[in-house]
UniProtKB/TrEMBL annotation:
GO BP, one annotated term: negative regulation of DNA-templated transcription
Cleavable signal peptide: none
Originating species: Yoonia litorea
Name of the featured protein: Heat-inducible transcription repressor HrcA
GO molecular function: DNA binding
Pfam families: HrcA
Length: 354
């Protein structure tokens, strides 16, 4: 669990202003902020020595750190958390950003995943970060299911939904499967699947297999259970994640430490092994959530921040999420309203299409 920052209200006005200016300066430039820089436009006339003393106190509290021998300071993760929770001023959504995001949803493309891919590209473009879009599972009732043998090691399941949507997925069939066992499994599934969504089908199949265990042979039952694992995407949730704009994380003049951090992040994004947690992060609270550095369960080793918000369907059920990932010195005040607006727009698009 992340360490709790001091209460911002317990700081005096001078300490609060020094802290705010150091954080804002760092978020803007990415460079340490020194006492002489602060004295030039401080709200009251104070010496650089006084400012340095305040900065040392803030460093003692764990809110600021010294990356180099120089007198400049940068905020720690604890400091960034306190700034985001207590001092962050969230701006209004820029008109051009709004237009860019709106244009992605005026497409006549009926494929939701394709539209969400366009949303991801737009989100990456306007934020200059990497965008993450978790697409919803298809939740229309199932109309028909077929198994097709492709080879001894490969088979295809064809899912036809009541709304006309069709999904084809290749999987490894159980050893010893035969065309007859596949037909029997398909017939069994079609006898119980119609009218149920994929999410509902798991429990329905479990009940039916238990009550009709003697009605299907062992190979067909094995095939049903194997197929079920595929349809629920166990271990394959990564296919639902769209990542765009990774190149935005590579800026000019990055230090070796920054490049190593970004390479770690790229590796995380490539593997996407913990993406099932992405929606969990979004579901833990309403609206936009900000995860800074080690708070970020998905990319805790990369020194990055994640700004994420869930989106809902017409039934107000959370079905996916959108987010932006970048360095901890993200422009949070600008990115929060962008992510918030995008999530609401995606939710409305999903609801309208359903």
């Amino acid at each position: 669990m992340a360490e709790q920052p001091p209460n911002i209200e317990e700081m005096n006005a001078r300490s609060r202003e020094v802290f705010r200016r150091v954080v804002e300066g760092y978020l803007e430039s990415g460079a340490p902020v020194g006492s002489r820089t602060l004295t030039r436009d401080f709200s009251e006339k104070v010496s650089a020595a006084t400012i340095r003393n305040v900065m040392q106190d803030l460093e003692y509290l764990g809110l600021l750190g010294s990356p180099h021998v120089s007198a400049g300071r940068i905020p720690t993760e604890l400091g960034l958390r306190m700034f985001v929770d207590g001092l962050l001023e969230v701006g209004d959504l820029d008109g051009k950003d709004r237009e860019t995001i709106d244009r992605t949803l005026t497409s006549n493309d009926h494929d939701v995943t394709s539209v969400l891919d366009q949303v991801g590209r737009a989100l990456s473009g306007v934020t200059h970060g990497a965008s993450l879009v978790l697409t919803p599972k298809h939740e229309a009732p199932i109309k028909h299911i077929d198994f097709v043998s492709l080879s001894r090691e490969r088979a295809l399941v064809v899912l036809v939904f009541a709304d006309g949507h069709v999904e084809n997925r290749v999987f490894t069939p159980p050893v010893g499967q035969t065309p007859s066992s596949m037909r029997e499994a398909a017939n069994f599934l079609n006898s119980i699947a119609e009218g149920h969504t994929l999410s509902e089908l798991g429990s329905v199949i479990a009940r039916e297999i238990e009550t009709r265990r003697q009605q299907i042979d062992a190979l067909a039952r094995d095939l049903v259970e194997n197929g079920l694992a595929l349809w629920e995407n166990k271990g394959e949730a990564t296919e639902r994640l769209i990542v765009r704009g990774r190149g935005n994380l590579l800026g000019d003049g990055e230090s070796e430490t920054d490049l190593a951090r970004i390479r770690t992040l790229f590796d995380d994004l490539e593997r996407k092994r913990d993406i099932a947690q992405f929606l969990d992060l979004a579901e833990e609270g309403d609206g936009v959530r900000i995860f800074i550095g080690s708070e970020n369960k998905l990319f805790s080793l990369s020194g990055s921040s994640l700004v994420v918000s869930p989106y809902m369907n017409a039934d107000r059920k959370i079905i996916g999420a959108v987010g932006v990932i970048g360095p901890t010195r993200l422009n949070y005040g600008r990115i929060v309203p962008i992510v918030n607006y995008t999530a609401k727009l995606v939710g409305k698009m999903i609801a309208d299409r359903s």
